[in-house]
Amino acid sequence: MCPCKSNKPYSNCCEPYHTFAKLPENALVLMRSRFSAYALSLVDYIIQTTHPDNEQAKKNIALWKKEIEAFSKTTSFDDLKIIAFKEYKTEATVIFNAYLRQDNQNGSFQETSFFEKVKDHWLYKKALTLKRI
Fold first, then answer.
1. What is the CB neighbour count within 10 angstroms for residue 14?
2. Which residues neighbour 43 within 8 Å (Cβ) at sequence distance 6 or greater?
3. What are the Cα distances from residue 109, in Å, to 10, 128, 130?
4. For residue 72, pLDDT beyond 80
């Protein structure tokens, strides 16, 4: 099953996005595919689907890759719940709960994420709010 918790096989869900065989048709699909990419430690996908204005994108890329890889490998991505999704022509927000465990401790959080469509590609721009749950 796909790590994005869609109850679909990975090959019919996030894999086509991860291999760039298909572009996410909306910000919600991008958000789910990014959750899945973190679970699978697909660092390049995370970087390539991050908006250039995102603070992380302005960091040293090699360091950023190491940080993503370390986070992915030390985290259990247990569940994903979509709370709300609003999309306009070139902007979107997704509110979700990510249920994570790190070192056998709760690392779950709720996030409101902002996405922007740039040249027909949805990109993750920033988190508007973040709270532990």
1. 28
2. 65, 68, 69, 72
3. 24, 13, 7
4. yes
